[in-house]
Amino acid sequence: MRVLAAMSGGVDSAVAAARAVDAGHDVTGIHLALSRSPDAERTGARGCCTVEDARDARRAADVLGIPFYVWDLADRFEADVIEDFVAAYAAGATPNPCVRCNERIKFAAVLDRALALGFDAVVTGHHARLSADGVLRRSVDAGKDQSYVLGTLRPDQLRRAMFPLGDSTKARVRAEAAARGLAVADKPDSHDICFVPSGDTGAWLRDRLGPRPGPIVDAATGETLGEHDGSFAFTVGQRRGLRLGRPAPDGRPRYVLDISPVTSTVTVGPAEALDVWHLAADVAAWSRAEGVDVDCLAQVRAHGGAVPATVTARGGELLVRLREPVRGTAAGQAVVLYDGDRVLGGGHILRTSAERAAA
């Protein structure tokens, strides 16, 4: 097959491309230029899409002996991922930009262009597996599993995807890279949000949205406990950085329970008030029949655990009834649903409920 290998400049994508070559595919490497003003160098494990990353990807392609190109998708990334991220926070939601990037860039814009150019599939370095029947599964390396950030991809997108690293641990990938003479063997993994290299999401959003001051209010009493300069700097479940004027009467920590962007109000309260028992999400992908209850596992964070749940697809939504609560879940996050290690589908959370008997 003619396959396009998306090469970020990291170790995973380099080894994924190498394995595609070993499998006998006709491989072409591409690096996605997603930043309009890329930095020359990375800052440790923060950020990506730097000039250094592009050079590392090119060097890896040279070692593998494959053609290599840089595709400038900065405008598409700005519109489909960054602007979506900003708008979601401004509306009080908590988006996952990695999920959006996979949906709208790697397996939409890149895949569409690849198919138009005559390629058969796109190869990435995600730690996930694809069964012969096209079913997405967790990686064998549970600590590096990335099926969650791929869990909203449609079957037609997965049929054109290749994830060669799903059967390997990260340690094995690094050892293989070193044995192949790839200079990225010991390169740190990138962390946090790639387009916020400072790691300070609140400050980055403030630069984009400007200050929007408002009160921090106690959920139980309605008392104003402090002020903030932008509700977008907070996420449901947050504890640090609240800068409250006085402690709770019982001395227990307070957490963000709700964000109202219309009034710029942040509501805080005790940890148990964060418990969520029901979710409703849009249907990004779903492999079961409409209106049928499906027992499964639900995961709401990339690095969180999965909890038992029952899911029904109805009226264009996934209705998720959790058998044990998840804490600090907010609209905008993705929920991905599993049958063992098999991904059944997922969507983006529209609303949550703390009521155990909620419909």
TrEMBL record:
Keywords: ATP-binding, Cytoplasm, Disulfide bond, Nucleotide-binding, RNA-binding, Transferase, tRNA processing, tRNA-binding. This is tRNA-specific 2-thiouridylase MnmA. It comes from Frankia nepalensis. GO terms for biological process: tRNA wobble position uridine thiolation. It catalyses: S-sulfanyl-L-cysteinyl-[protein] + uridine(34) in tRNA + AH2 + ATP = 2-thiouridine(34) in tRNA + L-cysteinyl-[protein] + A + AMP + diphosphate + H(+). The lineage of its organism: Bacteria, Bacillati, Actinomycetota, Actinomycetes, Frankiales. The gene is mnmA. Its EC number is 2.8.1.13. Residues 204-269 form the tRNA-specific 2-thiouridylase MnmA-like central domain. Catalyzes the 2-thiolation of uridine at the wobble position (U34) of tRNA, leading to the formation of s(2)U34. Residues 144-146 are annotated as: Interaction with tRNA. Gene3D superfamilies: Adenine nucleotide alpha hydrolases-like domains (2.30.30.280), HUPs (3.40.50.620), Translation factors (2.40.30.10). HAMAP family: tRNA_thiouridyl_MnmA (MF_00144). CDD domains: MnmA_TRMU-like.
